[in-house]
């Protein structure tokens, strides 16, 4: 008889964006390892991004439980709808660009909603799930964050029922890049860290998506920590035609600090120095883009070669990945982002297109790209090396020889990762 496990998550179809992908795929494959997943989600969530196409991936046989949630973003929207929507997406303007309302929202978010804006769902969820778990004889639960308030549901259920509890961190808690932008008071910062430490020390198993996060957490707890990265599904695209232009595509959000001027300068200079490059080049931006980033790109004279498509469904994103000539991955250049491995990296790796990535030194992304031979990784100071590789890619594109010789990708398949997860459940 399959073992039942309750998965507590906020993001679920029709939510869009990367947060939904991880557990949607785990749930898809867990039954193959004799585990019956049951998913607990909010009934009336405030998803900043929606992707109706993902509903097709949810099995009709999957048990899904929904309970109401109260969230502040709808109330905040009465003061500034655009600011509320941007902040809920994680797009925070640069300090000097923030309006008074945005500064106020960030202060309130960081200091009155600890650990996050979904904290009001904790108490009613614990009350409901305490009865549900006993009635259904479920002895194992998994919480996944962010939002990290969901880990507090796991914490309280662990304390009251003694269930086995796995805490999955898709992103870090107090060391994530935007945490410093929440205008925290000293007491609020202390409260965040105390909750983080309590979760890490009371969960039976910690799961993280990156090697750097594992190292950071090992300084806070003696509990076992396992790295299970995000991954890829093999998805075929019908009637695919490669871009005729030399397209470099960034797929996903470009936050204000994901803004490598070295890249925009390289692209400007290559267009100036090569008429052929200027004629053939196209920059595809697919996803939510910060106004700060767009202004910087325009300042380098690239506005007439941009194709800005905004947010698209995951289904369409896969198509753009496979038909673009080169794939671009950008992370904020800071110590805090060394641990961030975007879920799209793994889909990039099986798109058979070369990756150009920019980010901090010694990041987990750099390690994976080098290990799999799927592209090149640069720092925000790598002008000459970056320029050389982009022009080499352009010459290969002109010769119809732009190829990737990837190695060792199988361990990042969603099914292989789910097998690893099943060993801890």
Summarize the structure.
The protein has 16 helices and 13 strands. It has helices at about 20-30, 75, 80-90, 100-110, 120-135, 150-160, 185-200, 210-220, 260-275, 275-280, 290-300, 315-325, 345-350, 365-370, 385-400, 415-425, and strands spanning about 5-10, 35-40, 65, 140-145, 165-170, 205-210, 225, 245-250, 280-285, 305-310, 325-330, 355-360, 375-380.
Task: Report on the architecture of this protein.
The chain contains 16 helices and 13 strands. It folds into two domains: 3-72 and 113-232 and 415-424, Glycogen Phosphorylase B (Rossmann fold); 246-398, Glycogen Phosphorylase B (Rossmann fold, 3-Layer(aba) Sandwich). α9 (261-273) packs across α15 (383-398). 42% of the residues are buried. With 425 residues, the protein is of the alpha/beta class.
SSE layout and pairing:
Elements (H helix, E strand, L loop, with lengths): L2 E6 L12 H9 L5 E8 L20 E5 L5 H4 L4 H9 L10 H13 L9 H15 L3 E6 L3 H13 L2 E6 L16 H17 L2 E4 L2 H8 L6 E3 L18 E6 L9 H13 L1 H6 E6 L4 H9 L6 E5 L3 H10 L2 E5 L13 H6 L5 E4 L5 H9 L2 E4 L4 H16 L15 H11 L1
Parallel strand pairs: 1-2, 1-4, 2-3, 4-5, 5-6, 6-7, 8-9, 8-11, 9-10, 11-12, 12-13
